[in-house]
Structure prediction request, 215 residues.
Amino acid sequence: MKPLALFGGTFDPVHLGHLSVAWEASELLDAEVRLMPANVPPHRSAPTATSAQRVAMLKAALQGQSRLTLDTRELRREGPSYTIDTLRELRSELGERPLVLLLGADAFAGLPSWQSWRELFDHAHIGVLNRPGIDVEWSTDLAVEILPRRVNDPKVLHEIPAGKVIELSVTPLEISATRIRELLAEGRDPRYLLPCGLFDDPSVLAPYRGVRNEK
Ligand code: ATP
Prediction:
């Protein structure tokens, strides 16, 4: 059964780094990939754009292809988006279908600070996407947890519903939403770091123009 892979994030705004690694992950895993914007991210300061604005940007970004889709379930839930709640919910909907949580290497290194992080493996596999320009070290807790879970062959993720960790070697793109917000705040035009659909309507990027970056 084709796995369902979820790529969560703030997407404030969605950029070509997100889209490219999600696209390549779907190829490498032969999986359906859904981009899943988070509500109030528990680990970080509030996004600059509202949920509705972030969804509008994602919709504009995903136009013209069907491999990557959008899942707004976390925005429909009250309060902070805890991934564990989302995975429990999806697991009860999907039965035995394999589920993969896609995380950039930076997000993966921070996993032990997440709510009920060890339980994530009861519901999903984790696919780790390499990300350049970010120095990350795994804590001992994380290293010990993943050692027996590591696999190299994506086929394994088709055969069992959850519990494995795979590193996915994607084309490194050193793009971050922080950098894009900085450029927009300075009045610059990061045209080729963002999906072209975001430039169709000039009001889409308005939330970032002239805003001082807090992060
Ligand atoms: P910010 O700069 O605001 O922290 P971001 O660019 O890291 O934003 P997020 O929406 O926070 O984007 O990231 C969502 C997910 O995408 C995370 O798992 C993150 O590691 C991953 N990700 C973002 N950009 C890249 C990239 N260029 N390469 C690989 N993974 C990425």
Notes: The two ends are 40 Å apart (CA to CA).
